[in-house]
Amino acid sequence: MIEARNTVKAFGQGDHVVRALDDVSITIRKGEFFTLLGPSGCGKTTLLRLIAGFEMPTSGQILLDGADITDLPPNQRPVNTVFQSYALFPHLTVAQNVGFGLEMQGRPRAEVARTTAEMLALVKLEAMANRKTSQLSGGQQQRVALARALAPKPKVLLLDEPLSALDLKLRKEMQVELKRLQIETGITFIFVTHDQEEALTMSDRIGVMSAGKLQQIGSPKDIYTRPVNRFVASFIGETNFLPATPVAGGLKLGCGAVIDTPTDATGPVTLTIRPEQVRITDPTEAGAIPATVTSLVYFGTDTHCHMQLSDGAEVVVRVQSPASGEAGVAMGQQVGLRFLPGAAQVLQD
């Protein structure tokens, strides 16, 4: 549905040129929920603005459904955008806000009324149709903005961090709603966020960006379990990084333990392993990696156990919090660690 080919967007001149997008090529499929994920300043919003037509690329092309739209103005693109600020009209009712874009397109009054009713039903706001938007909660206003953007039935809906202004509970509820809306409408959603949880829970695929470049594209599971480099591994969820050296039989950690992880590397590498992929065992068990519990952080259902290996390296282990009356690990306790088979991934950068 959307293709960016060798896209460059530069700001400034001479020695002060900044490449917000640096030769980015990406293909987004029809009907998928695709998320651009990365820290502030990585280029994700710039790419969204190029697709919307709010910015022109310095070089490269933007295609929509096979047609080159690089030079088309925003109003000639079958694309709508939902912004971080809802940009609703406070003097209009909910229904009038939703139908506004259709009226600007000169649609017949009956069609505007019918489509507005359909959109309000889709976002479950039928009962709020005659209220002013200033009388709505933040979550309800966000639904109005979504209904307004969906009403003209765009081929692509662009969402620029639309949930960032909501509180945590409402944000989680809206994540479910957004995914439901995308499935029900079948419209291609391109979602921009710096929140890894949003990306993992809603997306069909994720494009991780850093410093104007795409680092990796894949399903949430692929991105999480098979990161291609240290940036992706650290940005997507929590992880442990351990220096290692190739030896016969696997990789040797600084503490002397050998991990059965195949690699073609001939020099030092970094291992990454997620906290939930490490198990705490008896320190006398054969093959266990000796460690000392240095701190415990309680998260309700889970507890993060911070460990120190004999060489000073730190490992965080995520375990289920013990039930009332059950004994868990204690500060200063000597334990053993085991990595789940195949869990440790080799990074060479």
From TrEMBL:
Q: Which InterPro entries match?
A: AAA+_ATPase, ABC_SmlMolc_Importer, ABC_transporter-like_ATP-bd, ABC_transporter-like_CS, Mo/tungstate-bd_C_term_dom, P-loop_NTPase, PotA-like, PotA_ATP-bd
Q: Which residues form the ABC transporter domain?
A: 2-236
Which reactions are catalysed by this chain? ATP + H2O + polyamine-[polyamine-binding protein]Side 1 = ADP + phosphate + polyamineSide 2 + [polyamine-binding protein]Side 1
Query: What Gene Ontology terms describe where this protein resides (cellular component)?
Result: ATP-binding cassette (ABC) transporter complex
- Protein origin, superkingdom: Bacteria
Q: Which Pfam families match?
A: ABC_tran, TOBE_2
Its signal peptide is none
> Which GO terms label this protein's molecular function in UniProt?
ABC-type putrescine transporter activity; ATP binding; ATP hydrolysis activity
* SUPFAM superfamilies hit by this protein: MOP-like, P-loop containing nucleoside triphosphate hydrolases
| EC number(s) per entry | 7.6.2.11
What keywords does the record list, in alphabetical order? ATP-binding, Cell membrane, Membrane, Nucleotide-binding, Translocase, Transport
* CDD domains on file: ABC_PotA_N
* Family, per entry: Belongs to the ABC transporter superfamily. Spermidine/putrescine importer (TC 3.A.1.11.1) family.
PANTHER family linked: SPERMIDINE/PUTRESCINE IMPORT ATP-BINDING PROTEIN POTA, SPERMIDINE_PUTRESCINE IMPORT ATP-BINDING PROTEIN POTA
Q: What does this protein do?
A: Part of the ABC transporter complex PotABCD involved in spermidine/putrescine import. Responsible for energy coupling to the transport system.
**Assembly and interaction partners:** The complex is composed of two ATP-binding proteins (PotA), two transmembrane proteins (PotB and PotC) and a solute-binding protein (PotD).
Q: What is this protein called?
A: Spermidine/putrescine import ATP-binding protein PotA
Q: What organism, scientifically named, is this protein from?
A: Paragemmobacter aquarius
User: Which gene is the coding source of this polypeptide chain?
Assistant: potA
